[in-house]
Amino acid sequence: MTHVPHTAFSIEFFPPKGPKGAQRLDKTMIELAALGPAFFSVTFGAGGTTRSGTLDTVERVMDTTAVAAAPHLSCIEGTRASIGELLDSYKAAGVTRIVALRGDLPEGMERPGVFQYANELVEYIKTRHGDDFHLEVAAYPEFHPQADSAADDVDNFIRKVDAGADSAMTQYFYNADAYFNFMEEITAKGVDIPVVPGIMPLDNFEQISRFSAMCGADIPRWIRQKMEGFGDDRKSVHAFGRDVVARLCEQLLAGGAPGLHFYSLNKTEPVRWLWQELGLPTPEQPQTGTR
Ligand SMILES: Cc1cc2nc3c(=O)[nH]c(=O)nc-3n(C[C@H](O)[C@H](O)[C@H](O)COP(=O)(O)OP(=O)(O)OC[C@H]3O[C@@H](n4cnc5c(N)ncnc54)[C@H](O)[C@@H]3O)c2cc1C
To answer: For residue 50, what pLDDT is reported?
Structure first.
C-alpha cells in the first residue's frame, strides 16, 4: 500500500526532552513543514523511555502541521499486548505509516521480548492490521554491525520485504557507491520496493563521529582527514560538511534514488539549507530542481 508517491522527501525528529526541547521542536516542525515534506517520522527510544514521547510527538505533528506523521516502532522489548495497544493508538490517531524496527537491547537486558527481529514485527503488524499502515523498514547499505556477513544482512533485509514491508529508509552513509551496490544486489534478488537513502547532515562533525562509531556508518578517511585538518576553523568545517552532503544527495538522486530521508536532529537549518541547495520541490515551487 502506498500513501505517498515516490520520489518522496521526508524528515525525521526525535521526541523532545523537557519543555524547552518541546518548544524548540514545535518551531522546527513548523519551519520544516513549510518545505512540504512527504512525512515527518518520529523515533522511538530504547528502554521504553520515549514510548509515550513518540505518540505525543506524533500527535503534536498532526495538531501543529499539515504533514503526515510516521512513528518508528521498535519491538525488541515489547510484548504482543503492548505493541498491539500502541498500534491501536496510532490507528485511532489517524496514523497511516509506521517505521517498523527491531531496536537495540538496552544495556543490562539480555533477552529480547517476543520479537527477535524486525521481520517478525512486520509480519505481526500485517497479520493484525492488513493494509492499515504503510510499513517502512530499515536498510543498511554499509551493512548492519551485528550481521554475520554482508550476504546474510542482505538476505535478512529481504526477509522484511517478504514479510510485507512497503518501502525502506537507510542508515546514513557518505559513500554513494555503497547505496548503489546495495540496490543492485537487492534488485537482482527481485526486490522492487523503494529504498530511500537516509541523509545525516555533517553540521556537527564531532557528534556525527560519535554516532558513527556506534551504528557502524563509515565516515570516509578523506572526509575525516579534511575535517580534522580544519581544527578550530568552524567556518571551514561547516562549509565543507554542507558541500559533501549536498554533493552526496545530488549523486544519489542522479543515480535514481527514489527520495531522501533527512535526519534533522530536531534542527531546522541543516535540512532547510540542503532542501534549497538541491532545489527540492516546495508547496510554492513544486517543479524546482534539476530532476
Ligand atoms: C531509518 C532508521 C531508523 C531507526 N530508528 C530507530 C528508532 O526510532 N529507535 C531505535 O531504537 N532504533 C532505531 N534505529 C536503529 C535500529 O533499531 C538498529 O539499527 C537495530 O540494531 C536494528 O534494527 P532493524 O530493524 O534494522 O533490525 P533487523 O532488520 O531485525 O536486523 C537486526 C540484525 O539482525 C540480523 N537479522 C535480521 N533478521 C534475522 C534473522 N531472521 N536471523 C538472523 N539474523 C537476523 C540483521 O542482519 C541485523 O544484523 C533506526 C535505524 C534506521 C536505519
So the answer is: 59
Q: What is the spatial distance between Cα 291 and Cα 282, in angstroms, rounded to a whole number? A: 14
Q: Which of 135, 196, 128 is nearest to 162 (CA)?
A: 135
Grid coordinates of 201: 547532515
pTM for this model (two decimals): 0.95
Residue 200 CB less than 6 A away from ligand 1: no
Atom of ligand 1 nearest to the CA of 171: 53
- In this prediction, residues 193-220 reach a mean pLDDT of 94
Q: pLDDT per residue over 97-123, tens digit each?
A: 999 999 987 777 777 788 999 999 999
Atom of ligand 1 nearest to the CA of 155: 47
pLDDT of res. 273: 98
pLDDT tens by residue, 45-89: 854 445 789 999 999 999 999 999 999 999 988 899 999 999 999
Instruction: Give yes or no for residue 250 CB within 6 A of ligand 1.
Output: no
In the reported structure, the alpha carbon of residue 202 is separated from the centroid of ligand 1 by a whole-number distance in angstroms of 23
Does residue 74's CB lie within 6 angstroms of at least one atom of ligand 1? yes
Contacts of 156 (CB under 8 A, 6+ apart): 117, 119, 144, 147
Q: Which amino acid residue places its CA nearest to atom 3 of ligand 1?
A: 138
Q: Which of these, 42, 50, 18, lies nearest to 98 by C-alpha position? A: 42
Report how far ligand 1's centroid is from the alpha carbon of 142 (Å).
13
Alpha carbon distance 127, 22 (integer Å):
35
**pLDDT higher at 52 or 274:** 274
What is the spatial distance between Cα 103 and Cα 121, in angstroms, rounded to a whole number? 11
Ligand 1 center to residue 12 CA distance, Å? Answer: 17
